[in-house]
Design a protein that fits this description.
The chain has 148 residues and is of the alpha+beta class. The chain has six helices and six strands. It binds zinc ion (2 copies).
């Protein structure tokens, strides 16, 4: 079940990329599968490190370029973590939908979910003058390590 859902996003992203005229290649596929297997967001540097550990060397510039393409196509969500740094995760509905706590000092990102928050957003969405298709919530501050 989980494996099936996991297969889903990478294939979907691959299809959207090729339909929009992007070349498909081993590096891009490896990056899609890596992102798909994550429960939360990764930085470009982490992505580069994991791919290298898997003997799949991808230049950092290529990692950034692919992430930009994915973001431009609405396939990934970019979480800004301060100082121009960002983390990326697959944008998918339903299972796995979550929000983020971000430490402004060290860039730590923690996922969180809250059913009450989701219900409140649904109620609010019905009252606002746009047709709401997605939302993102980021709570920023200092993590336990950086607080004192
Ligand atoms: Zn996340
Ligand atoms: Zn911190």
């Amino acid at each position: 079940m989980v494996a099936k859902a996991t297969q889903g996003w990478a294939d979907h992203a691959q299809r959207v990329l090729s339909e929009s005229g992007h070349r498909s290649g081993g590096a891009r596929r490896a990056l899609l599968e890596l992102l798909d297997a994550q429960t939360c967001a990764l930085s470009a540097i982490e992505i580069e490190d994991v791919l290298r550990a898997r003997k799949r060397r991808v230049a950092r510039a290529s990692v950034y370029r692919i992430l930009d393409e994915l973001e431009g196509l609405g396939l990934v969500h970019k979480v800004e973590v301060g100082q121009g740094m960002a983390r990326y995760e697959p944008l998918r509905d339903g299972d796995g939908h979550h929000h983020h706590l971000v430490c402004d000092s060290c860039g730590l990102v923690m996922p969180f979910t809250d059913p009450q928050l989701e219900r409140a957003i649904q109620r609010l969405s019905a009252r606002v003058p746009i047709d709401v298709s997605e939302h993102e919530i980021v709570l920023r501050g200092a993590c336990g390590e950086c607080r004192d």
